[in-house]
Amino acid sequence: MAVKIRLARHGAKKHPYYRVVVADARAPRDGRIIAEVGRYNPCVEPALINMDLEKIDVWLNNGAQPTETVDRLLKAAREQA
User: What angle do CA 53, 24, 40 make, to 5 degrees?
Assistant: First the structure.
């Protein structure tokens, strides 16, 4: 089973916020998830990036692959910490 760390969109129309989730790569974007490991809100200034880096590191060590966007957010979150 291929596992991805990716964004799941929530919120109202034109006001999204995203949950950083661990999910099967074949599952739909907002479908079944394995774990929630963070949140991202691009609508506030500055953008809110809240991630559990310890949980993410565990998933990465177990073979989960982050998407390009999540990889970029991870780098930003590690700079903030």
Answer: 40
